[in-house]
Specification:
alpha/beta, TIM Barrel, four-stranded parallel β-sheet, 9 helices, 8 strands, binds pyridoxal-5'-phosphate
Length: 242
Amino acid sequence: MSDVFSYESFLGERRREVLERVARAAARAGRDASEVEAIAVSKTVGPEEVLLAKRAGWSAFGENRPQELVRKLEALSGEPDMAGARFDMIGNLQKNKINQVIGRAALIHSVSSAHLAEAISSRCVARGIVADVLLEVNVSGEATKSGLSPDEARTGAEGIAALPGIRVLGLMTMAPARDADAARRTFSGLRELAAELRGRTGLALPTLSCGMSDDFEVAVEEGSTLIRLGRCVFDQGYALSR
Ligand SMILES: *Cc1c(COP(=O)(O)O)cnc(C)c1O
């Protein structure tokens, strides 16, 4: 980041281009672009870049490590230009890090097991707070991905949602990399699973967190309401496809 002004203008131009693509993808699917929120995944940049991104219009950020989330919140606390910003926890969460995250992350996207949900629940109850969470589902079935299997979600979602101290707002998934067809199947699978769970349980599950830099347009076409964008927001070397 040799030149703060040109990086800030890059952030603003890139943001406009990304949001334009979101709007076009939504229109292709007959959706209203206002149904789709984009968060800027700031895991590869420092607090200074987060502040510039906020000034460029991003207001929700995603971090995948609890320590980084805490570090950025502390570094930016009291910064007037960060008013109204939020940080979400999007990455793998270990039980011994839960206390760092609850009360700080606005939304935990990565509740990947019933055990983790129970642990978050008990810690929130002890602190007298309620955490908004998403259930991470391994829709693609890749062995390298974490998350509940779709069947575990079918059998477990209602019990998890009934736990005190957490509010289950929806589902999250990650698609296989570099395979647009597999990504589409993954995102449509998430949408269908959410519909099935709504029918089965009466849970509203309004939020579907899916889509990253390489596949957010497909995700929007398939019903995503929350896309998580890292490289395409912050990386000047990242070329948007097409
Ligand atoms: C890093 C990360 C992202 C953003 O990925 P990009 O490809 O850089 O957009 C989204 N979600 C999760 C869980 C991540 O870890």
